[in-house]
Write a structure and sequence with these properties.
The protein is α+β, with helices and mostly antiparallel strands. The protein has helices spanning 14-29, 52-69, 89-101, 106-119, 130-133, 141-148, 151-166, 193-207; strands at residues 3-9, 34-38, 48-49, 85-86, 174-179, 182-188. It is built from eight helices and six strands. It has a four-stranded mixed beta sheet with strand order 2-1-5-6. Helix 3 runs antiparallel to helix 4 (106-119). It starts with a strand and ends in a 16-residue tail after the last helix.
């Protein structure tokens, strides 16, 4: 059985930060691979300068995500008025770089970038922030830093953006399940774990009855 979850998100998507604990819970429950695709929220030429209008727009969404998910936010970053641009290209490149160097750590880095930006006020669009961000990850720091700013890895990030569009993904987070060549949407947008996991478990058990409990992790373990 060739089965996988495909998560399409962006490290600078606030609703994706809200969804991060749901993904962590999924990895505790299901013995099913999860592949991360970066969708490209505001990359490169689509980036916007942080001004009063954008700060107000973002702040409103951050408040909504915090209320819905309980995830922490530090809104002081929204006070910047030095020409900083909300450019999601570099964080997306960081995710695909980690995927190339140590694939199992892709989702943990995605979550670490979200926490750094939203809860700690760290500028994850700045390459200088990454030595501290990747501290503790099993990856060569110098190699990561080199690849992070390379054209090859930037192209790889844009290939992910194209894949997301080819999957019909227009917003983040989006979670899909793929069984060989068949695809199904699990959710478009944020859903709490208490709502998502029971419905997803029923779907998996109904569709893959022969696999049964093999789809699920042993209680008390993380697959």
């Amino acid at each position: 059985m060739d089965l996988e979850f495909v998560y399409v998100g962006d490290p600078m998507c606030s609703w994706c930060w809200g969804f991060a604990p749901v993904l962590e819970r999924m990895q505790e429950v299901y013995d099913v691979p999860l592949r991360v695709v970066v969708g490209g929220l505001r990359p490169g030429p689509e980036a916007e300068e942080l001004d009063d209008r954008l700060a107000g727009f973002l702040g409103h969404h951050w408040e909504q995500v915090e209320a819905a998910s309980g995830q922490p936010f530090d809104a002081t970053f929204l006070e910047r008025r030095d020409g900083w641009r909300y450019d999601t290209e570099l964080p997306a490149t960081a995710v695909v770089t980690m995927r190339e160097l140590n694939e199992p750590q892709t989702l943990p880095l995605h979550s670490r970038l979200q926490r750094a930006f939203y809860a700690e006020g760290i500028d994850i669009t700045d390459p200088a922030a990454y030595p501290d961000i990747i501290a503790g990850f099993d990856v060569d720091g110098d190699k990561f830093a080199e690849l992070l700013v390379s054209e090859d890895k930037k192209k790889l990030a844009w290939a992910d953006f194209a894949e997301a569009r080819s999957l019909g993904v227009a917003g983040f987070p989006t979670l899909l399940v793929r069984d060989e060549q068949e695809w199904a949407i699990v959710t478009r947008g944020y859903v709490p774990a208490d709502n998502l996991l029971p419905a997803l478990s029923n779907y998996l058990l109904n569709r893959y009855t022969e696999a049964g409990e093999a789809l699920f992790c042993e209680p008390g373990t993380i697959c």
